[in-house]
Specification:
The chain has 9 helices and 6 strands, in the order αααβαβααββαβαβα. It is of the alpha/beta class and 227 residues long.
């Protein structure tokens, strides 16, 4: 029985009881028992565990977990402490420095953002080692699309940050009358110069939150040793 805490168990109860999720679960049992799968099964739902519903301010959509050893830990774009910062995350840090004049951190762990109210949600939650997108057809798209729709319906004033084609395809799932959708190119080195750099999404997110009477997000990751 999954227990996420933070209000997610109640919000997502119907999904976890759905036959489609039960099929995903059976698939994962086989995969974890026969292959190396990332993230670790105990980290699979960290994006929910680290960001309670009542603290939710923003959703950043990723696509696939990192598929090399010691990287993925259940938060999109994030890597564990001590792991080299991937190129897309390096570009995210560059944009934050340009947008908010925040020094680029030396660590790629985004747990602090999750604790600040940023749901770091991949659209596919698991992957086989060395095989990108290997679990993209197992049913996760239905599950995470449903999560996005539930957040859109049940919450108010959330900022949805959609980078790249996969994430931007989810925009129709979100009620634009209730939420702010920010979308542009992916931070990957292949596309970052096509509209990601200069997007200003971090300051725009905080301006919107403050306009709704919410506390802004502290995007500075340089002082998170205590986490």
């Amino acid at each position: 029985m999954i227990s996420l805490g933070g209000g997610w168990d109640e919000l997502l109860a119907e999904l976890f009881a759905d036959e489609r999720y039960l099929k995903i679960r059976e698939f994962l049992k086989r995969e974890y028992s026969t292959h190396i799968i990332y993230p670790d099964m105990y980290d699979l739902f960290n994006c929910f565990r680290f960001t309670p519903v009542n603290k939710l301010k923003a959703v950043i959509l990723g696509q696939d977990p990192y598929h090399e050893p010691n990287q993925a830990h259940g938060l999109c774009f994030s890597v564990k402490k001590g792991v080299a910062i991937p190129p897309s995350l390096q570009n995210i840090y560059k944009e934050i420095e340009s947008d908010l004049n925040i020094k680029q951190p030396a660590c790629g762990d985004l747990t602090k953002w999750a604790n600040e109210g940023v749901l770091l949600l991949n659209t596919t939650l698991t992957v086989r080692e060395h095989l990108a997108n290997s679990h993209s057809k197992c049913g996760w798209a239905w599950f995470t699309d449903s999560v996005i729709k539930i957040i859109s319906e049940k919450c108010d004033g959330i900022v949805f940050i959609l980078w790249g084609g996969n994430a931007r395809s989810k925009a129709p799932l979100i009620d634009q009358r209730k939420h702010l959708i920010l979308q542009c190119a992916h931070p990957s080195p292949l596309s970052a110069y096509n509209g990601f750099f200069g997007c200003g999404f971090f300051s725009k997110t905080n301006s919107y939150l403050q306009s709704r009477g919410k506390e802004p997000i502290d995007w500075d990751l340089n002082n998170q040793e205590i986490l």
